[in-house]
Amino acid sequence: MTQSICTANQARQADTLAIQQYRIPSLLLMEHAAQECFCLLKKRLQNARSSVIVCGPGNNGADGLAIARLCKDHKIKCTVFLPDPCHLSMDEKIQWDMIQALDIPHISDLEPALKKIEQADVIIDALFGNGLDRPIQEPYSKIIQTINASNAFVASIDIASGLQATTGKALGICVHADQTLAIDCFKTGHYRNEGRQYSGQLFCLPIGIPDHLHDRLKTALLLETKDVQIPLRNSHSHKGTFGKALMIGGSQSMHGAITMACQACYRSGIGTLTCMIPDCIQEIVGQKMEFAMNLCAPSQDGTFALEGVACLDQEKSKYDILSLGNGMGRTKATELFVEHALKSDACVLLDADACWGLRDQLHLLDREAPVLLTPHLKEMTYLCQKDLKTIQEDPFDTVSTFCKEHPQCTLILKSDFTLIGHQDKLYVVDHANSALAKGGSGDILCGILTGLYGQCRDPLQAATTGVMIHNLCAAIKKDPASVMPQDLIEQIPIVFSSLREN
Ligand SMILES: NC(=O)C1=CN([C@@H]2O[C@H](COP(=O)(O)OP(=O)(O)OC[C@H]3O[C@@H](n4cnc5c(N)ncnc54)[C@H](OP(=O)(O)O)[C@@H]3O)[C@@H](O)[C@H]2O)[C@@H](O)CC1
Ligand SMILES: [K+]
User: Fold this and answer.
1) Domains of the chain by residue range
2) Parallel, antiparallel, or unpaired: how do β-strands 371-374 and 347-351 relate?
3) Could you tell me the fold of the domain covering 3-222?
4) What is the pLDDT of residues 171-220, one digit of tens each?
5) CB 430 near ligand 1, within 6 Å
6) Which positions does UniProt annotate for (6S)-NADPHX binding (predicted)?
C-alpha cells in the first residue's frame, strides 16, 4: 500500500466515504485503528511500570479508549484519563461505557491524573486528532504541559495533540511525541511548519479504508524504496543506449562541485559523459576525471566568460541531457548559459546557481523538452513569487502550483524532506539525514539524476529514483557528522545493486 499524505479534510472525506458508501461501520474502523496501534505499542506497554492513556473529547479519544480495552484483553495494566466525560462524541460514548463496564482503571479528576502522568513511563496521547480546530485551553494545556515535562515515552495517536492536522501549526501548546501513529494516512500537518518537530518517528497504520478512495483524496504520496525503479540495463547495449550527458559547471573557487557531480553521474550509469568547465580549471579537473571528456570554454575572473556560451551552442545538439549549475557561480554568463541550454532540444537539468540564473527568464520553461529543477528552499524563491517563509509554511502548495504552471518541469524541492512534483503529481521522500545537510550533497544528487535520465529518458522516474538513491546513500554506518561527499559517491553502486535486487 502506497501511503497517502492528506489534509484534515481529505482524511475526513475518506472516512465518511468508507462509512457511507462502503457501509463500513465507524466503530469497525476505530477497532482496526486501535488494534494496529496496540500491536505497535504492545512491547512497550508490557514492559512499562506505569502507563496512562490520555483521552480527549472526540474520536481520537475514542481510539485511546479502544486501546485501553485491548490492553485489558492482553492483561496489560494501564490507566485511562478522560478529563471531560460529559463531552463525548457518539462513538466515544460507546467506548466509555465499555471501559466502565469492564472495570478498566479510569480517572477524570485533574490533580490525581497529573500525578499519574508524572510517574508514567509510557503515555498514549489520544487528546486531539484530526478535529482540533481552535487553540488549546485549560485543562488541556496543563495536561499537555505535564506530558511534555514527564520522562515517559510518548506515542501520539494520529497526530501530536495541539498540531492542526492540515497546517502543522501548533495551536498554543503541543504534545512533543516520540512516535506518531498516523491513522489511515499521513496528514500534511505532519510535514508542514512545526509538524516535523513535534511528531517524532512517524508510522502510518491501515484501518480498512479502501485504498482507492485516496486516488482522489490526497495531497501527495510518500515514496518508499519499493515504489522506485532503477532503469533496466539490457546486456545487448552500447554506450549510446544509456544516454549522452553534458555537465556544465565549475569555477576557480568551486571546482570540486562539478567533479563530484560528474563522478556521481558516471556511477549512476550514464553512457557517455562530457564535462564543460571554464578553461582556468582545466588542469585540476582533468587530473580528477579520466572517465569524462573535458570541454574547456573561455573563462574570465575564475568563471565562465560570456563568450563561453558559443562553446555550448556548438555542442548542445549532441546530447540527450544538459545539466548546469554545479559550482558555476552567479554571473551574467550563468544566466546566458541557462538561456542557451533551454533553447536547445535536449532535456535540461538546472541545479544550484543555474536556478538563480533562471530567475528572470522563467518563460523559457515553456519548451518542448523536459526540464528538471533541483532548488533548495532559498533557491525556490527565485522560481516563484513567494518569500522563504511562505514556501516553508506550505511547500506542498508551492510545488504543486509551480508544476501546474510549468507542465514541462519536474521540480525537486530540497529541505529536510524532499518534495517531487510533476504536473498534478506530488511525492515526498522522507529519509531525513543530517549527513546530507552538507556542501557537495546537492552536486551528487544532480549527478545521479543526470545519469538516471540518460538511461530512462523519463524525468519523473529519474527524479523519484534519484532522490531515493541519494537518500539511501546517506544511510551508511558512519556518524552523519563525518560523512564526506566521497562516502556518498562510493555508496552509489551499493544502493543501485540493492534496489535492483528488490
Ligand atoms: N470513523 C472515523 O471518523 C475515525 C476516526 N478516527 C480517529 O478520530 C479522530 C478524529 O476524530 P474527531 O473528528 O472527533 O476529532 P478529535 O480531534 O478527536 O476531536 C476533536 C473534538 O474536540 C473538540 N475540540 C476541538 N478543538 C478543541 C480544543 N482546542 N479544546 C477543546 N476541545 C476541542 C471538538 O468538539 P467541540 O468542542 O467543538 O464540540 C472536536 O469535535 C482521528 O484523528 C482519528 O484518531 C479513527 O478512529 C478512525 C475512524
Ligand atoms: K493525538
Assistant:
1) 3-222, 244-472
2) parallel
3) Rossmann fold (3.40.50)
4) 999 999 999 999 999 999 999 999 999 999 999 999 999 999 999 999 99
5) no
6) 59-63, 129-135, 140, 158, 257, 327, 376, 443
